[in-house]
Specification:
heterodimer, A: mainly alpha, 2 strands, B: mainly alpha
């Protein structure tokens, strides 16, 4: 393993551990103000939508509609109809694979 | 790297920079930006963790996208045990998956052909649909997605998702706070 790779792994480990520790250390075990709760409730839709959008509507740093866009849309439709996350994921992968095979 | 960084997108970011000839000085900040979304996530779960500060800091290491999203109770609190359990399962499969890929990766062929890259976004999309029960949540989701896509083409990886988390500040409006207050009062003593 080269020094660069070792340095990169060490750096990523330290930085990621620090990021993940901040919230629990600073905010742990506290009674929370209403405004904080109100924001945290909305953090899920904000982050999930951003994660989905950046993975589905983009390829690297450019916008792109591809097989996985259609696959995930199909998965969403399935989830909306039958509320099964397993079926949603399975259909998304299957539709994506079939479209790529065409 | 899978064993100790345990965050796919950051690992891929770092590796692609190294593969392109970049040094650790470029790879580490880029991967860290990619992981910066864990800052709002860890702040959100912080109050739900029990134990002393060191225990809480260690539990914080278990925060990954899917366990964080799964354990959200939807009322601003998180199920600590579900989060730790979901992460433990993911950790074992992540590492065994990495080992399989390293040993027999060439024999498996291109995972994209099997549509495997659609699994995570589809999983998050399902969780998202489950979250979007109120008009406010729908608005925040639309805003978050719009922010992320608007920033995507000209900011470093990680920044779009981090900035999109600001959409949750819509929770600061008087109406949103009043609804939380009402719900807490209806449930008796807020925890």
């Amino acid at each position: 393993m080269t020094t660069t790779v070792a340095l990169t792994i060490a750096g990523c480990t330290a930085a990621t551990a620090a990021i993940k520790a901040v919230g629990p250390i600073v905010l742990g075990g506290r009674e929370l103000p209403t405004w904080f709760t109100s924001v945290v409730i909305l953090l899920s839709p904000a982050l999930l939508a951003a994660l989905v959008a950046t993975q589905v509507f983009a390829e690297g740093d450019r916008l792109a509609l591809e097989a996985d866009t259609a696959g995930v849309a199909a998965g969403g439709l399935v989830y909306w109809r039958i509320e099964s996350i397993v079926a949603c994921v399975a259909i998304a992968a299957a539709v994506t694979a079939v479209l790529r095979a065409l | 790297m899978s064993a100790i960084v345990f965050a796919g997108s950051a690992q891929f970011t770092a590796i692609s920079i190294l593969a392109a000839g970049g040094g650790a000085g470029a790879a580490v900040p880029a991967a860290t930006l990619m992981n910066s979304r864990f800052l709002p996530m860890s702040a959100a779960v912080g109050p739900s963790f029990s134990g002393g500060w060191l225990r809480r800091a260690l539990k914080g290491q278990a925060v990954v996208d899917h366990s964080w999203a799964l354990s959200s109770r939807g009322d601003g609190t998180f199920d600590e045990h579900l989060l730790l359990g979901a992460s433990a399962i993911a950790y074992v499969t992540w590492i065994s998956g990495t080992a399989v890929g390293a040993l027999w990766g060439d024999a498996l062929g291109d995972p994209d052909k099997l549509g495997l890259d659609a699994i995570f976004p589809a999983f998050f999309f399902g969780l998202l649909l489950n979250e979007m029960r109120s008009n406010r949540a729908k608005g925040v989701a639309a805003l978050g997605a719009a922010i992320a896509l608007a920033l995507l083409t000209f900011t470093p990886p990680g920044i779009p998702v981090l900035v999109a988390s600001l959409a949750s500040l819509m929770g600061l409006t008087r109406r949103a706070r009043a609804e939380v207050q009402e719900r807490q009062e209806a449930e008796g003593e807020p925890r």
